[in-house]
Write a structure and sequence with these properties.
Order of helices and strands: HHHHHEEHEHEHEEHEEHHEEEHEHHH
Structural class: alpha/beta
Number of domains: 3
Strand order of the largest sheet: 2-1-3-4
Distance between the termini: 61 Å
Number of helices: 15
Strand content: 5-15%
Largest sheet: 4 strands, parallel
Helix content: 40-55%
Oligomer: single chain
Length: 455
């Protein structure tokens, strides 16, 4: 076993050398694509042959792009492993290149010597060409080298079992960690096994963690020691407090710029929507009032951001004497509490429209985890009794729609799995929030406004 592991360890420098070769090939390919894009855009826009002007522009832009691309990690292990990251960084590098070129043209007063239209067209063609090349390259690398181009070593030393895709696995029967620092030969044996690894992950017993941490630091590798305590607390980083190490267990709300963008999106859509939908809102309010004379709105306390309660508005769809303010009973398909107009507005999701007022008040957002009634049950348990991570969904404002809804997780939570599915989607949304993601969810919501589970 030790000899097999040593053969793998000896192959790591070869892998690193191959990565360098791949980076150089990527860089040269990018340069060729950029040159070809300028020549093509010159032919399309200026229809001049030969294309000395286009080639001159390419020579001027190429060094700027290459420097920015290197800085943006377009040639990195992560760029080899993740196509989306690779293409995103290339796009960012091209945008910065375009901005710098525009500034340089302005200050050099060379507008007559440069064509901004041709520059823009060439950069768009470059992006498309590099995007295709990165996608093809990732497919080839995955087929030849597996899920990752990183050299990952997983050391199992009596700790929890873990699975790291693409990792080499070494069990501690290959060497003895106990007293290794006092024995240069034992230390050499371990050092040779982990030498050259891009990342070493150790799963060991509690008493061995300090020893492994010291050994990894001295080995000069990126080392990680698994800790059930860290897992239990859900730590996301390490901090320092007065010289003492601390576990960062939460990252707080979105960054200020992200919150501003999200709020701006809410207002840009909500204000016009309330104005355009006001005839429908007034008509529904009138029909509700005419049916049984009861209040138009159903006002219910729901849990919002920061685990704080707020009063959520809905058009009343149930009989006044059978309203369920705690939400203890999930609505069923043939629920006897629902009024005639109520059945229609629930099926078409019109009953949710008053929540645009909640969005205007900043109590809700257009997109986010749906707020649940306090007494809601999944099976025989309250929602928060099903999964301990339930409360994490309140780290963002609740939404009028959300990732769970567009995936079809609507209607009654008859079993615990129904809640688990929704919670998983909500937490995924929070982890991966982006403004573009909100926009996609809003468009996807149009398809599920009328849904078989909306009753």
């Amino acid at each position: 076993m030790y000899l097999e592991n040593m053969k793998t360890a000896m192959a790591r420098p070869v892998m690193e050398s191959k990565r360098v070769q791949i980076y150089l090939a990527m860089l040269l390919t990018d340069a060729v694509i950029l040159f070809g894009s300028f020549v093509l855009s010159g032919g399309i826009y200026r229809n001049e042959w030969p294309l000395q002007f286009a080639v001159a522009m390419a020579w001027a832009v190429l060094p700027i792009f290459i420097v920015i691309a290197v800085y943006q990690r377009c040639y990195s292990i992560r760029a080899l492993d993740e196509v989306r990251f690779a293409i995103g960084q290339v796009a960012l590098a091209l945008v910065i290149t375009a901005m710098l070129c525009t500034v340089m043209i302005f200050y050099a007063k060379a507008a007559t010597d440069f064509s901004r239209v041709m520059l823009s067209l060439a950069l768009v063609l470059t992006f498309l060409g590099i995007g295709v090349s990165r996608t093809v390259m990732r497919a080839i690398l995955r087929k030849r080298y597996g899920p990752t181009m990183s050299s990952i070593l997983l050391v199992l030393d009596g700790g929890p079992q873990v699975d790291v895709p693409g990792a080499e696995v070494v069990k501690t029967n290959a060497f003895d960690i106990a007293g290794a620092r006092a024995d240069p030969r034992a230390l050499d044996k371990i050092g040779r096994l982990i030498r050259g690894a891009d990342r070493v992950v150790v799963s060991c017993k509690t008493e061995a963690r300090a020893e492994w941490a010291t050994l990894l630091r001295s080995a000069g590798v990126r080392g990680e020691v698994l800790s059930p305590v860290v897992q239990e607390l859900g730590a996301i980083a390490i901090g320092r407090v007065d010289g003492n190490a601390s576990l960062v267990v939460s990252s707080g709300p979105l960054a200020l710029h992200a919150r501003l963008f999200k709020r701006a999106l809410d207002l840009v859509i909500t204000v016009p929507a309330l104005l355009l939908l006001s005839p429908i809102l007034l008509l529904v309010a009138l029909l509700i009032k005419l049916e049984d004379g009861g209040p138009v709105f159903f006002v219910q306390p729901r849990m919002g951001q920061h685990n704080c309660l707020f009063k959520m508005l809905k058009f009343r769809s149930m009989r006044v004497d059978k309203g369920d303010h705690e939400g203890a009973r999930s609505t069923s398909r043939s629920d006897d509490r629902i009024t005639k107009i109520g059945r229609f507005i629930r099926k078409t999701s019109i009953d949710e429209l008053p929540q645009l007022i909640n969005v205007l008040r900043s109590e809700m957002s257009l997109v986010g985890p749906r707020p649940h009634a306090l007494g809601s049950h999944a099976g025989d348990k309250l929602f928060w009794e099903v999964d301990s991570e339930y409360w994490q969904r309140h780290s963002l404002k609740p939404g009028l729609t959300g990732l769970a809804q567009v995936r079809g997780h609507r209607g009654a939570t008859e079993t615990e799995s129904h809640l688990v599915d929704r919670l998983g989607a909500d937490l995924e949304y929070i982890r991966n929030w982006s403004l573009w993601g909100d926009i996609k969810i809003l468009f996807a919501t149009v398809r599920v406004v009328v849904h078989p589970n909306a009753y």
